[in-house]
Write a structure and sequence with these properties.
The protein is an alpha+beta fold. The protein is built from twelve helices and 16 strands. An eight-stranded mixed sheet has the order 2-5-6-7-8-9-10-11. A six-stranded antiparallel sheet has the order 12-3-4-14-15-16, covered by helices on one side. A hairpin with a 4-residue loop joins strand 14 and strand 15.
């Protein structure tokens, strides 16, 4: 593999404000983010075509599962209808990018030698200088997504305001809400994936961020029916955090250890490691050192961990280009690799988020506030 020259500094992710009832806020989302939504569609249309799936097939698969998802998540599907109308595309288009995991891993011939990554971490209030719980992650995925992502600030007609970093057109990725709930997510894979149909992950993540209590947020994950494995780290400003390793057949949990909670892309819960074949490690072997190195970096700074400590930990370049901060390189296929698309940091007490696009090169953090 050969290194590619670093890009120039990427402009900050745009902040999109939406409010009102589901379809109303969806239309506003679609109109304001139309250019980036179309870019999201182009990214996944190209990936699927490269893996042998025509976009018409992606729409057909989406059409077949919309009704089932709508029964469980009616307001989210109403919002998707609004997004489609606002961006002047079909509901199947928007549903397809929300179901990109299901399409790529369940129906296509996706090249898993360069998969979805991510390294996430939570520092409990006992080990931070400010006395607040801090929560963040590096999101590793297709580099072009740095040009298709946004920060979405949602003021619904009913329920809690939400601030989420997300690919344009999706319902949620990581973020926080007005009740102090924080969420990040990481890719996992086991032998039970794709054995049954399930809810696309963005619907579950949005539901987590719609809840006011830590218990309700965790229950939203544990009662979901996913078709693919995923790790979701949930925190609350009242100084609680849990890592939920969700598979299509069972959910496992990992509590903080010595006031730190760190997760990359392999199963950590002892019960999960005893029961599951961890297929994540076949393509994400670097996960074994990524979480260890972030944990060590944070532990060295305790009990005075700051947002800057998180920034430095997520800049770790050991094992580059397959590092905590993944740089851009050309793989064996001649295509650009997955990179660290963004670093996202949150103080759920302050209801603030700091996000840097393409942190493997020249970058800066932009502050976004729920208020």
């Amino acid at each position: 593999m050969s290194e590619i020259v670093e890009r120039a500094e990427t402009t900050p992710f745009p902040l999109i404000d939406i409010e009102g009832a589901p379809q109303q806020r969806g239309r506003s989302y679609g109109r304001q983010a139309a250019d980036r939504i179309l870019r999201s569609l182009a990214i996944y249309r190209e990936i699927l075509a490269r893996d042998g799936m025509d976009w018409s097939k992606a729409r057909e698969i989406s059409r077949s599962i919309i009704a089932g998802v709508e029964r469980a998540y009616p307001s989210s599907v109403a919002e998707i209808r609004g997004i489609a109308a606002g961006a002047e595309c079909s509901i199947e288009d928007i549903f397809a990018i929300n179901a990109r995991t299901e399409l790529l891993y369940g129906h296509g011939n996706f090249d898993e030698s360069d998969p979805d990554g991510c390294t996430g971490a939570v520092a409990m209030a006992e080990v931070t200088r400010c006395g607040h719980l801090l929560h963040g992650q590096n999101w590793d995925w297709k580099d072009d997504c740095a040009d298709s992502s946004i920060v979405l600030r949602i003021h619904p007609d009913k329920g809690l305001p939400i601030l989420t970093f997300v690919e344009a057109g999706l319902l949620a990725r990581c973020g926080l809400n007005a009740a102090g709930i924080g969420l990040t997510g990481n890719h996992l894979k086991c032998e039970h994936d794709a054995a049954r149909s399930g809810t696309p992950i963005p619907f579950v993540r949005r539901q987590v961020l719609e809840h006011a209590t830590f218990a309700e947020a965790a229950r939203a994950v544990m009662t979901s029916q996913l078709g693919f494995s995923n790790n979701m780290m949930i925190s609350h400003c009242g100084n609680e955090a849990i890592s939920l390793e969700v598979t299509p057949v069972e959910t496992f949990w990992v509590p903080p250890e010595e006031d730190l909670l760190v997760h990359a892309n392999h199963f950590i819960a002892p019960s999960a490691r005893a029961k599951m074949r961890d297929l994540s490690l076949l393509s994400n072997t670097d996960s074994l050192y990524r979480d260890a190195r972030v944990r060590k970096h944070l532990a060295r700074a305790a009990p005075s961990i700051t947002i800057e400590t998180f920034q430095a930990a997520f800049q770790d370049r050991y094992g580059s280009p397959r590092a905590v901060c993944r740089s851009l390189f050309t793989g064996d296929t001649g295509l650009p690799s997955a990179t660290t698309v963004a670093t996202i940091l949150m103080d759920t007490t302050l209801r603030k988020m700091w996000v840097a696009p393409r942190p493997y090169g020249p970058h800066r953090f932009t502050e976004y506030s729920l208020d």
